[in-house]
């Protein structure tokens, strides 16, 4: 079987590069040395190296998918404060973050709430968790994607472009309501929603209820058709809380006002007077 093959161990790095096995190329000296020292059976050494190559390959794939997903840096589930949105159930979000059945049937997630309530953060956090689980995600401002689809339509490539987006198990359309039908023809957005219906999932964030979506789509009947398809299989989360930005700014101000050190209180009349000024502010609740 080995007729005509010369075994030259010095060629191993070259062979591994040729076979595109970078992890084995990196680790074989260490593991062959250990195997020799500890008398491993040859099959154990081969299996170990193959497993390591496969594990690193999966890691590299996830890294690639994290880059292509264009998620918001740092906006993950770890940094999301669930206590700020009591109407959103953490166990439910954790279950959604694992993917599985809702992505398999192309169900959608719709996040509603005023500006600053954490919609984009939560969308990005779910996206990050899903990519880490092995799914492919694209996070985009809706206006950006609409523009891309319009360009595709102009060059008669709308269908092909929408087909290509099928590789993403989830597309997160951030700020759907920022799309304006008068900006340009937005039926491309409807085409995308219709094409993915019951097959591939969408996550939509919106600061306006469905009733106001007529400003997004060309006419009322298309708005209805789009909403119908989006909500047929959907998890709808209402995040009706005050802006997190504003709340954290207010509480930072409060903390600064409430925590002058003893020496400051004794020695510095300007700082000592700060709590009094702050107490005059209207309560935020
Ligand atoms: P929206 O998209 O609803 O306008 P964002 O997701 O952009 O709001 O949130 C505004 C800012 O507040 C971001 O910096 C975000 O990370 C932060 N934020 C909002 N909600 C939370 C939360 N529950 N926990 C941690 N940070 C939050
Ligand atoms: Mg946002």
Mean pLDDT: 88
Helix and strand content put the structural class at alpha/beta
Query: H/E order of the elements?
Result: HHHHHEHEHHEHEHEHHHH
Stretches where pLDDT is under 50 for at least 5 consecutive residues are 261-285
Q: How would you sum up the major sheet?
A: 5 strands, parallel
Radius of gyration: 27 Å
Distance between the termini: 81 Å
Beta-strand content = 5-15%
Give the fraction of residues assigned to helices. Answer: 40-55%
What best-fitting shape do the alpha-carbon axes yield? Answer: extended
Q: What is bound: which ligands?
A: adenosine-5'-diphosphate, magnesium ion
- DSSP strand tally: 5
| Number of helices, where a helix is a run of at least 4 consecutive DSSP H or I residues | 14
Neighbour order of strands in the largest sheet: 2-3-4-1-5
The gist of it:
With 285 residues, the chain is an alpha/beta fold.
Account of the 3D structure:
There is one protein chain. By secondary structure, the protein is α/β, with parallel strands linked by helices. Helices cover 54% and strands 9% of the residues. It contains 14 helices and 5 strands. The chain has helices at residues 12-18, 22-38, 42-69, 90-97, 101-104, 119-133, 142-154, 158-164, 187-196, 220-232, 244-258, 262-267, 269-272, 274-279; strands spanning 108-112, 137-141, 170-174, 201-206, 234-238. A 5-stranded parallel β-sheet has the order 2-3-4-1-5. The longest helix has 28 residues, at 42-69. The N and C termini lie far apart (81 Å). The relative contact order is 0.11. Residues 261-285 have low confidence and may be disordered. The structure holds adenosine-5'-diphosphate (ADP) and magnesium ion. Magnesium ion binds next to helix 6.
């Amino acid at each position: 079987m080995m007729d005509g093959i010369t075994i030259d161990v010095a060629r191993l790095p070259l062979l591994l590069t040729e076979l595109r096995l970078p992890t084995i190329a990196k680790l074989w000296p260490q593991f062959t040395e250990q195997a020799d020292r500890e008398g491993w059976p040859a099959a154990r050494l081969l299996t170990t190296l193959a497993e390591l190559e496969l594990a690193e390959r999966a890691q590299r794939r996830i890294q690639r998918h994290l880059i292509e997903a264009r998620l918001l840096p740092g906006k993950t589930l770890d940094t999301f404060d669930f206590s700020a949105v009591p109407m959103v159930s953490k166990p439910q979000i954790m279950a959604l973050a694992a993917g599985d059945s809702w992505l398999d049937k192309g169900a959608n997630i719709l996040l509603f709430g005023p500006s600053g309530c954490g919609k984009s953060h939560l969308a990005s956090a779910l996206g990050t968790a899903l990519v880490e689980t092995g799914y492919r995600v694209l996070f985009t401002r809706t206006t950006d994607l609409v523009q891309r689809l319009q360009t595709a339509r102009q060059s008669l490539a709308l269908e092909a472009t929408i087909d290509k987006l099928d590789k993403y198990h989830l597309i997160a359309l951030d700020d759907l309501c920022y799309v304006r039908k008068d900006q340009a023809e937005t039926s491309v957005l409807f085409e995308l929603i219709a094409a993915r219906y019951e097959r591939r999932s969408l996550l939509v964030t919106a600061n306006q209820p469905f009733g106001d979506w007529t400003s997004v789509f060309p006419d009322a009947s298309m708005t209805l058709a789009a909403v119908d398809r989006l909500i047929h299989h959907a998890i709808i989360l209402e995040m009706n809380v005050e802006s997190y930005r504003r709340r954290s700014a207010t509480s930072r101000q409060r903390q600064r006002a409430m925590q002058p050190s003893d020496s400051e209180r004794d020695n510095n009349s300007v700082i000592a007077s700060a709590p009094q000024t702050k107490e005059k502010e209207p309560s935020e609740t």
